[in-house]
Amino acid sequence: MKKLVALGLLALATAVGSVHATVTKPVKLIVGAPVGSGPDVLTRKLGERMTAKLGVPVIIINRPGANGALALQEFNSETDRDHLIYLSDMQSAMIHPILSNQEKLIENVKHIAPLFKTDFVLAVSPKVQNFDQLVTTIANGKTSYGSWGIGSPPHVMGEDLARTYKDNKAIHVPYKEYNQWFIDTSSQNLTYSFVTVGSSLALEQKGALKYLAITAPQRNSKFPNLPTIGELTKNQIEPYQAWASLAVHRDIS
């Protein structure tokens, strides 16, 4: 993770510095995730390091909602492209524009460096005893799951799990804010959710959420007793990892 952040920082400084040898204006960093989410926390830490390196303030602009379209619209409408950075991810850069026939939203996005790659965890209410109980609920056709938007990784994985266990009419609930999403998972208003550790670990440690599996290809050393999704589903569901990278406007040389 530290190496990826360092690489992104170097690439960012190079991209911005290629236009002006000395950056004298604040840099805007647009993030399509809400305040307090895993991507937001990491981006703010990166922003602090960028500020120290570039010598100008780095302003984090959160534009969650509309499946990433709001952040992309902000990115495309900004006129000061020399001082503009965008946190791009799998959903906003690939899945949603294709599903919604809005490929034009990403025409001006030029990726300059990877920032992070992340696994997800299958999270349920602490009231759920085990995976077998969860499967029974799904098989009975009472499935609902949450995500941060249509076409997001949690949406794709949530639907995959429901269909694997024969519920083809599962209800997908997209959320703009993570807090309510996690509360609804904890209270069993949702059957389950696929979430990142960075966004949900505090709730897991408090006992408000229970992790059943990780979507990585192998177990995580920090959670040695947590099986992979492949182990839990007998390889009916493959590993899934999402990525994010720093991007600038394509006109930046």
Kindly describe this structure.
The strands form 2 sheets. The chain has a 5-stranded mixed β-sheet with strand order 2-1-3-10-4, with helices on both faces. The protein has a 5-stranded mixed β-sheet with strand order 7-6-8-5-9. The protein has about 250 residues and is α/β, with parallel strands linked by helices. The radius of gyration is 19 Å and the shape is elongated. Residues about 1-5 have low confidence and may be disordered. The longest helix has 17 residues, at about 40-55. The protein contains 9 helices and 10 strands. Helix 1 (about 1-15) crosses helix 2. Helices cover about 40% and strands about 25% of the residues.
Rg measurement, Å: 19 Å
Query: How does the major sheet shape up?
Result: 5 strands, mixed
Please give the count of helices.
9
Element-by-element helix/strand order: HEHEHEHEEHEHEHEHEHE
Name the poorly predicted regions: 1-7
Helix % is: 25-40%
* CA-based shape: elongated
- Structural class, judged by helices and strands? alpha/beta
Strand fraction equals 15-25%
Q: Average the pLDDT over all residues and give the rounded result.
A: 86
Taking strands numbered 1, 2, ... along the chain, how are they ordered across the largest sheet? 2-1-3-10-4
User: Count of DSSP E strands?
Assistant: 10
**Span between N and C termini?**
27 Å
